[in-house]
Known about the structure:
By secondary structure, the chain is mainly beta. The protein contains three helices and 18 strands.
Amino acid sequence: MMKQTNRILTWALSLVLLAGCASRDENTNTTATTTASPPIVKELTVVPRPQSIEELVKQRGEQDQAKPNLHVVAPANNSTINGSTVEVKLHLDGDLKGYVPHKDPATGKGNHIHVILDNQPYEAYYNLDQPFELRNVAEGKHTLRVFPSRPWHESYKNDGAFQLVTFTVKGGGDPAKPTTTNNGQVMAPAQSPMANASPSPAREGKDVTASTAGAVDLTKPLLTYSRPKGDYAGAEADPIMIDFWLLNAKLQGDGGEYRVRYTIDGMTPRFIDTWDAIWLSGWTAGKHSVKLELIDKSGNVVENGGYNSTTREINVTR
Ligand SMILES: [Cu+2]
């Protein structure tokens, strides 16, 4: 009995110690690995990009080497929008090599743009001929981040692919009623949440969760969390890709001074030192948290409006 209590105390103490230095010294974390690993997940392994995706890359011809340039037509940077519906209009050019956002009706997949309001999970936007509607947007200041992605959600990482604009909403949505129609001055006709389910004339869009912008400085390093998000099932759940966008930050392995730290289910953090998607194998069924952080050479999170440390919950089913 005494022995048991001692063990628990030691374990609790090592947790406290781990928590104390988790954000500063990766070496300490490495040392503590053996003591603080409740068996929630087994160790995840970094694996190569899956063969199924390598096949897709081949089928896509030159598209994988495209250098898309994305432009935000609306909302204009620093503009004010009256009403809670924000129409996002994008223009794509650059060296596209056949890259066109489009959802294949048969598979429900295709090239698409990741659209991120504030620091919420991204929304997929496929048909750039029609605006994407962010609905029920809360009053206040917001950021919008956009970048092109492949059908398997891996982002294009060339200069010009990523854009960020800031805008302000007046007479915005009611945070207590996340799926209601607009109030205040409405710029576009209100759409029901089911609009997405009906065929073509319906615009793509999303009733968004209430949020406002972080105090982002565009001259500072900025990490944008992209994947993983949402639900993963069957073959898509193993491996699962981690992907992100970096602005003003070169990673150590790319000749810079920054690192990206990822933490799954609060366990021992690990690092990404070159800017590429990584694939992790070994996920158990159930909910998992994924935290991505941009770390400076002293081991601290780079502050930038709170966006450089982002946690998402994903759900894995088998
Ligand atoms: Cu995607």
